[in-house]
């Protein structure tokens, strides 16, 4: 308390002390007061001159393209693999990549090893057995066919000659014989069909073990991996030696869609395709298959879709990685703004615009307007109502601070930063002593 009273007493006597002070002390006090006032005023002025700087864009009419993206790999369309189950050494190759060949044409010869020779002999025996079974089944069919018609003729002859009615026991018996003969004939036809399928299967098995590799279909050879002297080792599945594609057949892409995207994708939609292997090019395609059954892996559901390229490209190979942009909708002649300009709260969408709406007619006044929005993509949003073409919308803002001062710069009231008024030595050029 005594210290407080002492400070009050000293402050009360400060004016008298200033009046009694020398001129040099008075000037020093004045300089301190001016410095404090200049510093405080500058700070106040700078705080008052913080102005927002807006980033803007113009609402314009254009086309809004919405799409979904997916990734996948190239698969060969309209083609078949050249395969063999034979093992041994390749002795001759008769075709090369790019050749046009016909179904059954010789592609290569293989000198079979012992294992394949044994398998081939067994496959040939199975083929001959199936062939004999088909011939036997055909003979049985012919016999049953003859029996069926003979029974029918007997039925008709007795019915006419003896005047048999449908409730006559003899007619009932002969009619039952006819129905049985007809049924036996039909059953034998099914046996013939099965025998033909077995014969075809036996031939294919033998062909896969044959020393001669032939073309499974007509088309263009690609991806051939055969050369004289090459060894083909045994596997549990056929060895792929290359591919034959139909002339004009287009490559396809298999992609997986998410459950959110699959509902937007339809057959016939256009696609933009890019490949990691060809980064400077893009291609077009069309959706041809959408598998809506889907599959689940690691608790994630995906839906396969197939896309066909619009053009064939020699440098696109199976299993290349592909990025697909599927165009799901195109809207023309709609009002578009950057999506960043849209603000949504409680289900209401608003956009800040710069308009001449001040009472004094000043241009560039910020105004928030309610809008009705339509579709959108990653960068743009369709505006159905609320703003017009040419309106300036605010997409963002930053705050800048400017310091206002008199003269050409922000300087102290002392005219020189190294001394007092007028020079380096202090007030009025006073020299240090």
CATH topology of the largest domain: Elongation Factor Tu (Ef-tu), domain 3
> Biggest β-sheet: count, sense, barrel?
6 strands, antiparallel, barrel
Task: List how many beta strands DSSP finds.
Answer: 21
Beta fraction of the residues? 35-45%
Notes on the structure:
The chain is α+β, with helices and mostly antiparallel strands and 433 residues long. It folds into 3 domains: 17-49 and 405-429, no CATH class; 50-77 and 250-401, Elongation Factor Tu (Ef-tu), domain 3 (Beta Barrel), CATH 2.40.30; 101-218, Helix Hairpins (Orthogonal Bundle). Helices cover 31% and strands 36% of the residues. It has 5 helices and 21 strands. It has helices spanning 2-12, 14-20, 23-48, 114-162, 169-208, and strands at 50-58, 60-75, 79-84, 88-93, 100-101, 106-112, 212-214, 219-222, 231-232, 239-245, 252-257, 270-275, 278-290, 295-297, 300-309, 321-338, 342-345, 348-355, 365-376, 380-385, 392-401. It has a 6-stranded antiparallel β-barrel with strand order 2-11-15-13-12-16. A 4-stranded antiparallel beta sheet has the order 3-10-8-5, with no helix packed on it. β19 (365-376) and β20 form a beta hairpin. α4 runs antiparallel to α5.
């Amino acid at each position: 308390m005594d210290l407080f009273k002492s400070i009050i007493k000293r402050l009360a006597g400060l004016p008298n002390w200033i009046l009694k002070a020398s001129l040099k002390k008075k000037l020093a006090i004045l300089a301190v007061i001016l410095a404090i006032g200049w510093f405080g005023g500058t700070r106040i002025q700078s705080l008052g001159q913080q102005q927002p700087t807006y980033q803007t864009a113009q609402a314009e009419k254009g086309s809004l393209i919405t799409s979904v993206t997916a990734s996948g790999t190239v698969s060969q369309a309209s083609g078949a693999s050249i395969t063999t189950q034979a093992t041994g050494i390749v002795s001759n190759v008769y075709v090369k990549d790019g050749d046009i060949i016909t179904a059954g044409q010789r592609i290569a010869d293989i000198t079979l090893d012992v294992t394949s020779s044994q398998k081939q002999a067994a496959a040939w025996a199975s083929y001959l057995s199936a062939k004999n079974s088909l011939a036997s089944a055909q003979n049985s069919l012919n016999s049953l066919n003859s029996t069926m018609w003979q029974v029918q003729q007997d039925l008709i002859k007795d019915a006419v000659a003896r005047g048999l009615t449908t409730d006559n026991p003899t007619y009932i018996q002969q009619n039952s014989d006819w129905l049985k003969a007809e049924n036996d004939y039909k059953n034998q036809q099914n046996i013939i069909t099965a025998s033909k399928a077995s014969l075809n299967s036996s031939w294919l098995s033998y062909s896969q073990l044959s020393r001669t590799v032939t073309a499974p279909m007509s088309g263009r050879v690609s991806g051939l991996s055969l050369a004289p002297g090459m060894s083909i080792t045994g596997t549990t599945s056929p060895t792929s030696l290359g591919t034959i594609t139909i002339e004009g057949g287009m490559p396809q892409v298999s992609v997986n869609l998410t459950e959110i995207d699959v509902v937007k994708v339809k057959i016939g939609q256009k696609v933009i395709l890019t490949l990691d292997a060809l980064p400077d090019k893009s291609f077009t395609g069309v959706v041809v298959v959408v598998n809506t059954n889907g599959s689940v892996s690691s608790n994630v559901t995906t839906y396969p879709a197939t896309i066909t390229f619009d053009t064939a490209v020699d440098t696109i190979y199976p299993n290349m990685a592909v990025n697909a942009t599927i165009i799901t909708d195109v809207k023309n002649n709609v009002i578009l703004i950057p999506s960043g300009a849209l603000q949504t709260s409680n289900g209401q969408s608003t956009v800040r615009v710069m308009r001449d709406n001040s009472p004094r007619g000043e241009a560039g006044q910020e105004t928030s307007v309610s809008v009705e929005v339509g579709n959108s993509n990653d960068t743009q949003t369709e505006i159905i109502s609320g703003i017009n073409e040419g309106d300036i919308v605010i997409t963002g803002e930053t705050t800048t601070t400017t310091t206002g001062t008199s003269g050409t710069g922000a300087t102290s009231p002392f005219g020189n930063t190294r001394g007092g008024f007028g020079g380096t030595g202090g007030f009025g050029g006073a020299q240090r002593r």
